[in-house]
Design a protein that fits this description.
Helix content is 44%, strand content 15%. By secondary structure, it is α/β, with parallel strands linked by helices. It has a single domain, classed as Rossmann fold (3-Layer(aba) Sandwich), CATH 3.40.50.300. The relative contact order is 0.19. The chain is built from twelve helices and seven strands. A hairpin with a 2-residue loop joins strand 3 and strand 4. Strands 3-4-2-5-1-6-7 form a seven-stranded mixed sheet, with helices on both faces. Bound molecules: adenosine-5'-diphosphate and magnesium ion (MG).
C-alpha cells in the first residue's frame, strides 16, 4: 500500500482534480484506491456530491471515529470526506504534542488498498505537514506559469525538511504539468525550463486544459465517468499508466 500526498501550497493548481481523476483512472485500471480529503474546503467531498456523511476526517483526527467508519463509496473508489470543521482541528493541533504525527497514527490500520491519495489544503500548514509525515510519496500538480516555478522551490524545500526531520521514507514521485494549454507557447517553455532546472521527475503525461474536467464536479462525477471520450479523460488514463509504469 502506498500513501501519496498531493500537495502544492498554491490554490487552484489541480490538486483536487488530480486526486479525483488519477484516483478514478487507477480504479478503472483495477486498482484499489482510497481518497482522503484533508482540505477544510472539502472540494473533493463536494465534487462527488457527498452532502452529509456519517463522519469526516475531523472526527477521525479527533479520535472520535476510525477512518474505516466514515468511508463513502463512489465510482469504485473509497472516499474519506472532509468538512469545514477541519479548520478548527487545524487550530487546536498547533498546541498539541506530537501534532505532526496524528494523521499517520490514524492511518496505521489501513491495509487493503493499492493506493491512498491525500488531497491537501493550499498551504504549508500543520495539516499539510501531517500529510507529508503520513505519506510514502509526494505528487505535485503544477500549473505551467512563471510564478509556479518560484513556489516550487519553497515546496521542494519543505518536502526535504520533512524528510530530514520527520519522515525518512518520503520521496517525490513526480511533478504533474496541469492545465496545460497547447495553444500557448508559454506552457511549453515553462515545461522545458522545469525539466532543465530540477532533478525531480516531471511526468510526460501532461494534463491539458479541458472544459469537461471543470464541469464534471457539478455532475458529482470524475471526468472518466462524466465524459469518457474527452481529452481530459484520455490524459488522466495516460497519467495513471505512466504512474504505474514508474513503480
Ligand atoms: N485540466 C483542467 N482543465 C480545465 N479546468 C481544470 C483543469 N484542472 C483543474 N481545473 C479546474 O481548475 C480549478 C482548480 O482546480 P483544483 O483541482 O480544485 O485545484 P486545487 O485543488 O489545487 O486548489 C477547478 O475549478 C478545476 O475544475
Ligand atoms: Mg483543492
Amino acid at each position: 500500500m502506498d500513501i501519496i500526498a498531493i500537495i502544492n501550497q498554491k490554490g487552484g493548481t489541480g490538486k483536487t482534480t488530480t486526486a479525483i481523476n488519477l484516483g478514478s483512472a487507477l480504479a478503472f485500471l483495477k486498482k484499489k484506491v482510497l481518497l482522503i480529503d484533508l482540505d477544510p474546503q472539502a472540494n473533493l467531498t463536494y465534487s462527488f456530491g457527498i452532502q452529509s456523511p456519517e463522519g469526516t476526517m475531523t472526527e477521525v483526527l479527533q479520535g472520535k471515529q476510525t477512518i474505516q467508519a466514515i468511508l463513502v463509496n463512489k465510482e469504485g473508489l473509497e472516499i474519506a470526506p472532509s468538512s469545514i470543521a477541519l479548520s478548527d482541528i487545524e487550530i487546536s493541533l498547533v498546541s498539541k504534542i506530537g501534532r505532526e504525527g496524528i494523521l499517520k497514527e490514524r492511518l496505521k490500520d489501513l491495509k487493503s488498498y493499492d493506493f491512498v491519495f491525500i488531497d491537501s489544503p493550499p498551504s504549508l500548514s500543520i495539516l499539510t505537514i501531517n500529510t507529508l509525515n503520513a505519506a510514502d510519496e509526494v505528487l505535485i500538480p503544477l500549473q505551467m506559469e512563471i510564478l509556479s516555478l518560484q513556489g516550487l522551490a519553497q515546496l521542494l524545500n519543505t518536502v526535504r525538511e520533512v524528510k530530514r526531520v520527520l519522515n525518512n521514507r518520503l520521496r517525490i514521485s513526480g511533478i504533474i504539468p496541469s492545465m496545460y494549454d497547447n495553444r500557448r507557447n508559454l506552457s511549453e517553455e515553462i515545461l522545458k525550463e522545469l525539466e532543465k532546472n530540477i532533478k525531480e521527475k516531471v511526468f510526460k503525461s501532461v494534463i491539458r486544459e479541458c472544459v469537461k474536467i471543470a464541469e464534471s464536479p457539478s455532475f458529482a462525477k470524475s471526468v472518466l465517468s462524466y465524459a469518457p471520450d474527452s481529452h481530459g479523460a484520455e490524459d488522466f488514463v495516460k497519467l495513471a499508466k505512466e504512474f504505474l509504469r514508474e513503480r
